[in-house]
Amino acid sequence: MLTLPREASRSEVRTLLTQEAEYGHWELARSVLYVGGVRKVWLRRRLHRVASTL
Length: 54
Known about the structure:
26% helix
């Protein structure tokens, strides 16, 4: 789970999530924007399904 401050712009958040997805093999599971402006983001591991060669 990532907690992002209210000062973080949308482009900064997008860049952070893009980097996590590309290099860390994570994908967005859930995102919540709270009243105070704090955003919490849940990430999950991306599953790589491999076809059997047998």
